[in-house]
Design brief:
Blueprint (H helix, E strand, L loop, with lengths): L12 H18 L6 E4 L6 E3 L3 H6 L6 H4 L3 H6 L1 H9 L9 E3 L1 H8 L5 E5 L3 H11 L5 E4 L3 H7 L8 E5 L7 H16 L4 E9 L6 H9 L5 E7 L9 E9 L5 H16 L5 E8 L3
Parallel strand pairs: 1-4, 1-6, 4-5, 6-7
Antiparallel strand pairs: 2-3, 7-9, 8-9, 8-10
Bound molecules: S-adenosylmethionine.
The site of S-adenosylmethionine has 20 residues, from helix 8.
Family: Belongs to the RlmJ family.
Enzyme class: transferase
Subunit structure: Monomer.
């Protein structure tokens, strides 16, 4: 059942959007002196070699980081994102490695923070364990990330972010996300919840239903979506988005600056970009 390997997709346009948003959320959490925690429910391997077979199969990173690696304006707007990428690409031969969400969280947080990683796929778990076991701030769990929204919340410290980034290889992931979010909000009402979703071809797409269902929780909600091409009729991923529950003040304005240049750099056809507040803060 669990055949998904993020290495095929590492650094693609969806990763770029997700990780830039993650960097902005960490920026907001870092503004206060108070420690915080990050729960990454679907951690993946934590780092990916782009010159190896999985990533080379479709070279998806060329649709993402390959297009924006040297983008001046984006480098100025989201320096944290590039700081992490540059730190693992020290050779002059372009980009060889792409960071996963655990590496962004670890690299951009402070000594006082706690990072909780969950990964269900055995070989991905072994890799992420190997990559982060020496970091004393990190707890690495071979467990179901949806379940963790019950068993690990509220986070310790009680301030922080849950990144929910399933592969959606199972249709049930959509209902699981909603259920996990509701549990998460009941156990950790002040937490930020950042949910990634794909925008697929019309026959397979569930992004609108997911958005509708999450909006109905009535929690403060911001949506950012980047479709690099027009929606196809059948399959394929045309874009992706993030739904951010309990979004921090100022995030909308920061994304407003980024989305224009990011869309222009990544679009591949008609495409569209969207940024909107779906539920206002009180
Ligand atoms: N968050 C990662 C990043 O941005 O670098 C990518 C994660 S990838 C989209 C989804 C990961 O979730 C895969 O590594 C997959 O093995 C794992 N996975 C699938 N179902 C899971 C579950 N129920 N709980 C935890 N991990 C799961």
């Amino acid at each position: 059942m669990l055949s998904y390997r993020h290495a095929f997709h590492a650094g693609n346009h969806a990763d770029v959007l997700k990780h830039m948003v993650l960097c902005l959320l960490l920026r907001h959490l870092n503004k206060k002196d108070k420690p915080y925690a990050v729960l990454d429910t679907h951690a993946g391997a934590g780092m990916y070699a782009l010159n190896q077979a999985y990533a080379q199969k479709n070279s998806e990173y060329m649709s993402g980081i390959g297009k924006i690696l040297h983008h001046r304006e984006l480098r100025d707007l989201v320096p944290e994102y590039y700081q992490v990428i540059d730190s693992i690409n020290t050779s002059k031969s372009g980009i060889n490695f792409y960071p996963g969400s655990p590496l962004f969280s670890c690299a951009l947080s402070r000594e006082s923070e706690r990072i909780y990683l969950c990964e269900l796929h055995r070989s991905e778990f072994e890799t992420v364990y190997k990559n982060f076991k020496r970091d004393r701030r990190v707890s690495i769990n071979h467990t179901d990330g949806f379940e963790a929204m019950k068993s690990m919340l509220p986070l310790n410290p009680k301030r922080g972010l849950c990144l929910i980034d399933p592969s959606y290889e199972l249709k049930s992931d959509y209902t699981q996300v909603l259920k996990a979010l509701k549990t998460g909000l009941s156990r950790f009402p002040t937490g930020i919840f950042a949910i990634w979703y794909p925008v697929l071809g019309k026959l397979k797409d569930h992004s609108k239903n997911l958005t509708f269902d999450i909006k109905r929780t009535n929690a403060p909600l911001l949506q950012v979506e980047l479709n690099i091409d027009g929606q196809s009729d059948d399959f394929g991923m045309n874009g992706s988005g993030m739904l951010i529950v309990n979004y921090p003040y100022g995030l909308y304005e920061e994304l407003e600056q980024i989305m224009g240049p990011l869309f222009t750099a990544l679009k591949d056809g008609k495409g569209s970009a969207r940024l909107r507040i779906l539920n206002e803060k009180d």
